[in-house]
Amino acid sequence: MKLTTYAVPLALVGAFAATALASSAEAQTQISPLCGVTGDATAPTTISYDPFSSSGLSQATIPLILRRNRGLLTGRTDEVSLVLVAPAGTPALDITYQGFRVLYPEGSTAGRPRALTSNDNGAGAAGEIRYEFGGIFATDLSAPLNLRVTVPPGTDLSAGEPINLDILYICSGAGGMLSVPVPVRLAGAVRLNVNTVSALQASYAGAALDFGEIGEATTQTVLAAPDRYTTTASNALRVRSSGPFQVQVRSQNNFRLTYPGGNLADANQTIGYRVRFLGQDITSNASLGTRTCARAGVAGAGAVLPIRATLTEGGASKTPSPSYADTISITFSPVVSASSAQSCSGL
Fold it and tell me: Per residue in 33-59, pLDDT tens?
């Protein structure tokens, strides 16, 4: 009598859009003896990025608004020239302004920003963002500087998490404000709130959870040698997700094997087993409840969640049949955020 659990099917819940993070409170103009700027770039709420889409996010326009420093009296920031810097660990993306790339990896700005329009007549502006604010009565906010943002397919963006970039700038002051000819770096000065869909992909990697022939094994024999009646550790579920996710495990027969037409209420027609999953031994549909896992990421293999099954009864005293089996359903549901999520990989 061969007792086999069928391959684990996956019940997957579709992706849904994450709510965009609210933009930070509107900054006020800084009072300083030195020229300078602060920046904010927020994607329109209509822009969403699905990390599992084959098209990625192509040519989305995100306006960058600069706010200049003022002095106590007539001092003001007159002109600024800047580039954007992607700190180490920033997801892969490309940003252009007026057709030229203005986002540079950490340590690779190639000497930019180089000069202001007032001292080079606009020459060499390619690869930089330059802006002249105007006189004392002009607004402290720049016109929208339209950045063209491209996110390649498969980029590992987190659902609900902004992308923070640094600004590296030089500037000139007017009305008694001092100029800054040596580049100044503003950490996290640009915050790109690209709405990343909270999406998930899952698959089963392995074979059927097969206990083999146990028709002559007694319950005493099974309990005395649990490793002999445990499925291989190589079977696992692989999950990739842009955000946290919830997991539920359900057995068709409430973690009992039976044969077609078998009576679950008759102990002679069922064989008990347990499943080791997410670091817990599951013996009934009420055992696990709902587990919340931290994001698995969308790159590479993601999270690997091993699953093993162990018999808790033998088949020697059971009704003979070659078709004892059960079906386990594991449901993954992506969520936007979860304060109590834990890393489930490898449990």
Answer: 999 998 887 766 666 788 888 877 667
Taking the C-alpha atoms of residue 15 and residue 276, their distance in angstroms, rounded to an integer, is 27
Tell me the per-residue pLDDT of 293-328, one tens digit each, with 9 for 90 and over: 998 988 777 899 999 999 999 999 999 998 899 999
Closest listed residue to residue 316, CA positions, set 248, 214, 234:
214
Rounded to a whole number of angstroms, the distance between the first and last alpha carbons of the chain is 32
Q: Taking the mean position of all CA atoms in its chain, how far away is CA 66?
A: 29
Cα–Cα distances in angstroms (integers) from residue 26 to residues 45, 133, 142, 170, in the given order: 18, 19, 14, 23
Q: Are 90 and 163 in contact (CB under 8 A)?
A: yes
Asked if pLDDT for residue 18 goes beyond 90, the answer is: no
Strand partners, 186: 167
Q: How far apart are CA 283 and CA 281, in angstroms?
A: 6
Whole-Å CA distances, 254 to 178, 275, 285, 316: 75, 11, 6, 21
